[in-house]
Design brief:
Elements: H1 8-14, H2 30-36, E1 47-52, E2 55-64, E3 80-86, H3 95-111, E4 116-121, H4 125-133, E5 137-144, E6 147-154
Length: 159
């Protein structure tokens, strides 16, 4: 796991396939991804690239959950939100759990004392298992992307 580099931008955009995005509304149009991804991905704190032998397997993010999105645990929203997305060859090998745990350690060090949320489509049982292993507890279900979503919360670890 490492911070993104300038050369990662196109790789992050290129492999956003329908299979990888099946639980997040499907593949997004390339121009939409181009607009969302900073020119220099390394300037985005909380974005980590996960690779093995120089090949990108996926990424982990910790961003602010947009106040306009459904599903919040704080009255004003804007919670820290963990996200992870991996290529199929990384599925089922513990890569997401290990990488997300590393990102959460970084977050706890940088922003200690804050809770973190994670959202997954209820049908995405593998993602919910990862969240469970990381200590997230279900708080609410809501409809988004045309399907039932699961929102979990992780309280900050005790000092």
């Amino acid at each position: 796991m490492r911070e993104p580099e300038a050369g990662d931008r196109s790789r992050l955009i290129d492999w956003a396939s329908a299979e990888v995005n099946q639980y997040t509304g499907g593949a997004r149009p390339r121009d939409e991804l181009e607009a969302a991804m900073p020119v220099e991905p390394r300037r985005r704190p909380g974005l980590f690239v996960v690779e093995r032998d120089g090949a990108m397997l996926g990424f982990v993010t910790i961003d602010r959950r947009d106040r306009d999105r459904l599903g919040h645990v704080l009255p004003g929203g804007n919670e820290a939100e963990l996200g992870y997305m991996f290529l199929p060859e990384a599925w089922g090998h513990g890569v997401a759990t290990e990488a997300a745990a590393g990102a959460l350690r970084w977050f706890d060090y940088a922003h200690g004392g804050e809770l973190v949320v994670v959202s997954a489509q209820l049908a995405n049982t593998a993602s919910i298992r990862v969240a469970d292993k990381l200590g997230f507890v279900e708080t609410v279900r809501f409809e988004d992307y045309g399907a039932l979503q699961w929102l979990g919360v992780r309280r900050p670890p005790n000092p």
